[in-house]
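Lecture 7 notes: from sequence to structure.

We start with a single chain of 538 residues. Read the sequence below before looking at the structure.
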Amino acid sequence: MERFLLFVALGGAAAYAQAAAQAAALTGRVVDGVTKAEVRKATVYATQQQSSTPQSGALSFRPPTTFSAVTDAEGVFRFPAIAAGKYTLRAEKPGYLPFRGKSRLDTTAVTGQETAVGELELLKQGVIAGRVTDAEGEPIEHANVQVIGTRRQGTDLSAMTDDRGEFRIPRLAAGAYRLLATKPPPSQAANAVPPGEQLLVNAPTYYPSAAEESAASTITLAAGEERTGIEIRLRRTPAVRVAGRLAGEIPPNTPAYMSMMPAGARRFGGANQFGAIAGSDGSFVFHNVTPGDYFVHGNLHQPGGVKPLSGVTRVSVGPQDIEDLTVVMAPLVRITGRVRAEGGAKLPAEQVSIGLRPMDMGLPGGWGGRVKPDGTFVIENLQRQRYGMGGNAPKGWYLKALSAGGQRQPELEFDVTGAEMNLELVYSDRPGAVSVTLEGSPEDGGQTIAVAIPEGARQLTNLYKAAHIAAETKVVKIDDVPPGNYQIVACPSSLVPSLAEDAIWERVKAKATAVKVEEGGTVSAAVRPIVESDLDEK
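Now the structure, written as tokens:
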């Protein structure tokens, strides 16, 4: 028995030694991106890069494996025994920006070796803290404070005030920011005021107490800085009642869901958006509406599988109540269509996807679908409004022309406010291209991306094209670019959403290069990289 146990022990030890010999190791160090000092007790994650592999004629997927390690007092981390292969490394620690530090992509762990990956950088977070008060200086609880202009992957950050009216917004990179505070009144509550008096409510307010973003004060943060004592005093604005009635073939006793959305709105985080339900007689009312331009939208789902009804109208709200607004309800529409290739080329229709976007900001939208192998498509239940055509074309193709109801649409837009429509989309296999050369060095961290933005369309619609620039070559080719005039820019991918902001574009457009792309041709563009500091007010 003792010999057997000894045999098992020796065999287990041999197996362990063999496994250890076949394992790989990674080591490195986490440092502060500004001071280069070690960052202790940071967590480092190593995720093995894996892909789908065919097995027995079927495609199977094995989820990636992630290992973790914690840095020591010198900021050093080590993965002593992991499987050989390619890994993505990232580090994180409370008080530092997530996803902002350098990560090592395509780090290869070699069997039987310890690979040094160098340094991973973390950047300390900035913080803005303060309080929100009313016009008399009293604290406002449950007000939403939103950061405008943040470049953290284009995502606006926000915080809610507590019972003292205080807020704290962490995870901010160094840069210039504006704040927007909102405390919308209950949209369903009808507030009574004495005859002859105007109801006043809290209005969306930019720091310190501005009605428009252009008049807001800017808060500039250094890396890792915590700015406290910020006070936003909410403005008061008149609020009115907007009432009306649905028109059209409205089925009895079927409620319609109503909403009001600011025309042209891109933000406000729910402020200045109102909801209501139309009664059995089609009447509806919105309470506490602040002045401005709105879309009033109605949706009614009919029983028995009958096509839903929808209606929308635009209204300008002033200081007086509105009692006679009419929203005409009509069945949702569908569009049918066909895609084809220009000339005698063969278009892989099944690789085409259709995407529609509303041309009026503030209206609902975002429909689309795939094209059948025979080149036909159908999109059901569309709101009656004007759309821009987008979607994805197969590699080596671009959408060249759109006809709606037999009429050519030069701007690739069409209108279905009236009736259902048949579309024809013509694709060309002769797109242009832009060869981009990066002049100078981009910022450390993140991938540098070259973007071709259509002239006059900085909203970064699906018309824009982009490609990642390899650090070792500083050259990239942006393929499948439709002919036209473009501005070519280069920046870290996390900064791309900020280019849609007019104020930021004015500060960085000097680094853009204007080009004209011809069908089937390649044009060259040398661009200087946009860095984070370029986005800040000087």
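The chain has five domains: 20-122, 126-237, 239-331, 333-428, 433-535. Keep this in mind for problem set 3.
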